[in-house]
UniProtKB/TrEMBL annotation:
Taxonomic superkingdom: Bacteria
Record lineage: Bacteria, Bacillati, Actinomycetota, Actinomycetes, Pseudonocardiales
Protein species of origin: Allokutzneria multivorans
Pfam families: Inhibitor_I36
The protein's name: Peptidase inhibitor family I36
Amino acid sequence: MAGTLLATAPAQAAEAAAKCPDRWICLYEHQDGRGGSISFPEGSPGSDDLSKVPCPTCEGGGTFANRLSSFINNTSQTWWAFYETHGRGERHNMNPTGNRVLNLLLSDEDKVSSIYSWR
Ligand SMILES: [Ca+2]
């Protein structure tokens, strides 16, 4: 019995790490929905400057600036992620994913500084 519990615990933990409420977008510090996270509800404008958004669950605390590595977009809207604050710099679309986590390419990790819902 103990062996069965040990074998199933990691799978349950992984599943729990990659859940985002309906109509929210969840941004994760690490790949596969791991690490610290912040989230925005559908209809929120997003953030001009993620260096003003605290991330107490992130490694070392601080803010969510230049942390994004994966996301779940459980809203019905496309969101835009920008490398620089105030919607400047390279832009990446974040299309709805349902409740599935999408990893950024390694070359795009830890660069996002602002995020907006499409409007
Ligand atoms: Ca990261």
